[in-house]
Amino acid sequence: MPPRNWNPTTVVQAVLWILLGLWPWPEPGTASLPFLMDSVIQALAELEQKAPVTKASHTASVWQLSAQDPGPHDPLHHFLLDGQSLRATKLDLLALSPELRGLIEEAARHDVRGRQEYGVVLAPDGSTVAVEPLLAGLKAGLQRQRVINLPLDSTATPPGAGATFPDVGAVVPDVRATSPGLRDASPDVSSTDVGAMSLNVRATDPNMGAIFPDVRDSSSDVQVTSLDNQTSSLDAKAKSPTTVDSLLVVTLARDLGLTFLQGPQTQSHPGLGAEGCWDQLSNPRNFTLLDPGASLLTTAFLNGALDGVLLGDYLSRAPEPRPPLSHLLSQYYGAGVAGDPGFRSNFRRQNGAALTSAPALIQQVWGTLILLQRLEPAHPQLQGMSQEQLAQVATLATKEYTEAFLGCPAIHPRCRWGAAPYRGRPKPLRLPLGFLYVHHTYLPASPCTAFERCAAKMRSMQRFHQDTQGWDDIGYSFVVGSDGYVYEGRGWHWVGAHTLGHNSRGFGVAIVGNYTAELPADAALSTVRDVLPRCAVRAGLLRPDYAVLGHRQLVRTECPGDALFHLLSTWPHFDANVKPRIARRASRISKKKLPPVTLPATGLQ
Ligand SMILES: *[C@@H]1O[C@H](CO)[C@@H](O)[C@H](O)[C@H]1NC(C)=O
Ligand SMILES: *[C@@H]1O[C@H](CO)[C@@H](O)[C@H](O)[C@H]1NC(C)=O
Ligand SMILES: *[C@@H]1O[C@H](CO)[C@@H](O)[C@H](O)[C@H]1NC(C)=O
Known about the structure:
21 helices, 14 strands, immunity, PGRP_domain_met/bac
């Protein structure tokens, strides 16, 4: 139980002190606890037990430390979050057990150096999460005011004074009471002022229309309004933002804006959404990125930022007393916040897309860059940038983020489910392919709804395909769980063993379960029908005119099950001209000797 006078803001502030360098920085690799979200939750729970410790001497020492090192690396945090309250906090972090302190010290600052990513932890859903943007989101959410007026005149206070004027940031009244919440249908996160879409996106980018075509919340059926729809009635005159939402700035908008400001201003930004592998899953210590040229906008960073936005938004609207952060995080990274299975880390992309529309995010990123320009006049990349140039950076950054991250399925790489190595030499596919072949796994017969189970089923299918069938690897290109995740099989680049005679022509995607009489979960269906192919088309892996076929249309099998096949035949890209082979069986029997009967699960190759 948390103490009576427990204060969640204090706890997050305490963790942020560590971020700000108030304690000595350990060598990487010295923390003794595994880099698990559970360890972070444990640390927060311990802080909650101890907060607030009010011993004056400790408070004084914190004051001193604070005075010695007043400058965080980021004036934006100072402007939006820290200020007076940082100095006033009365919490004795030194009382935290050494293991937990070590963990927080190491896990609390996000960084990418070479192929190593730091400040990330493994969550129970198998995702890797950067702790820094998550904590920043929690802290921003605990503040009363989120909407901050931009200091637009040229006499804005210089950055050195940042710590002293956060309360001067002329805060406008909280708009949350009248603005829609997470579960409401409108995707606009903020007030009409902040979200006002006055930048004509279509004028600068004709391709923006496809941003959120059909991302659905798995549980609440939120339909994301497309950008096209929102911009169609707006005038062409760009109006710069006058406010920002501190929650979006400190989690997402700042890094999004700065990365695209620095990076190559091209259509495709290769560094966004890089995945990686842990050294071990049971005791994760070391996270290595798969892509050597990754920017800071890794999947782990974007996961943490999105979790920070979602949980910060929740906290900013939660009535007092707010839930202890350790409870909130264990629900969010567990069965769902307040018993809602749709509000958990597994569905962060769907929930994130529903919470913030692309036009509102463009305004936020644009506003953040304007704010940074005011706070850091000497910033090398921002110097001399015009409003229009900043707006273009914000538009490009938002487009990449929404299309290449939010609009793509969350795919667990092979290392995450403990795949055995490929046997032999994989054959490369010649991309883009023209087909998506849909399968059910049949065995395992029950859908998997949690990472541990899904990963175990992946390993058992791979063992069966490699050891019993004698194949090189698991047959499918991808396997879709009912836990919100896609599991990488042979992936986008290697020929699979899923649809005999057609393996080089299409990707084989299986949904875990037996769909003879029942249908897969909605989230799994929308992944296969919409999200995965749309993402693959955008990335040039699948042809825009691709066809969807059920396994039974090409191979004599019941797969993907009557119920699923019937539904499949209503999908927009379904090719009805290829008749199921099972229906033609009778006419063929007379002409031809039947091939040996195989179990559906083994009839893949
Ligand atoms: C946007 O879409 C909604 C729902 O489909 C529709 O009612 C509305 O008229 C559209 N707005 C514009 C400006 O096209
Ligand atoms: C982390 O793992 C990578 C690759 O396995 C290795 O090169 C690196 O030295 C490791 N770093 C630490 C600190 O263990
Ligand atoms: C698959 O579902 C069908 C229909 O419910 C059932 O008859 C069959 O036994 C199931 N197969 C397995 C392996 O569970």
